[in-house]
Give the backbone structure.
Amino acid sequence: MAERIAVGDKLPFFLYDTPYSAQNRFRDLLAAKSPLVLIFMANFGHPITRTFASRYAETYGALRDGALALVVRSRADKLSRSIGPDTLPYPLLCDADGVLYEYLDIPQNSSTLMTYSLEGWRILRQARKQGYRAVKGAPQQLPLTLILDRDGTVLFCHYGASLTDVPEDCEAIQSLLEELDLTPEEPEIDARAFHQVYDTHSEAVPEEEPEEPTRRSRRSRHGRRRPAAVDDFGPTESIREYNTPELDKTSVVSLFDDPYGDD
């Protein structure tokens, strides 16, 4: 029986497909860089999912202290027609049958008043002008945001109350990591050791005229050096027109269990 995951629980390893590769190991994604921010949203054809996928791509350079992956309820083979390996700077995990969604008890809701925030209504209104037509009465998939460490342990968990109840962009994700103290800290300096090295150096090296002070590099409010450029990936490929998949005809993603043992 499905049960909501919570902080301290461990997400099991599994295999997943992306629009450009199959049978990927989730354990490898966790090992590549941690903490991993894993965001579950509706199918990729949904205008709100598209909007946030674009925001994350455009601001990805702001995520300095972690990694991001987006999970969608869409078929990998269908998305492969428009999404290549260089389209998004982060992995797009496809779970058309909602195996993970069920396992994590991520709810759906058929009430538009309950699932759409003011921002959601604005996005939907703009999408309708571009030709998007939602299926009346269809259940809306609510989101989930997880932050995981290298072994899949949940460090942060938030079940969204509306379709837009996820981090706004990668700058917001970076701020969340900093607020939760999940970013690498700069090493502290032992004062006595520092003075000992300094005094030894002062005795050995004759004094010289002081140089002009150099301007310090800008730092963020959290004391970390700001990146030279916000976006290291360059311009992202524009995400194409809305195309909502029929969930009752989608295929099963390769999940549970990971057949490979620990290396």
Q: What stands out?
A: Confidence is low (pLDDT under 50) at residues 210-263. The domain at 15-183+226-249 is CATH 3.40.30.10 (Glutaredoxin). Strands lie at 15-18, 21-25, 36-40, 67-72, 92-94, 108-109, 140-141, 144-148, 154-159.
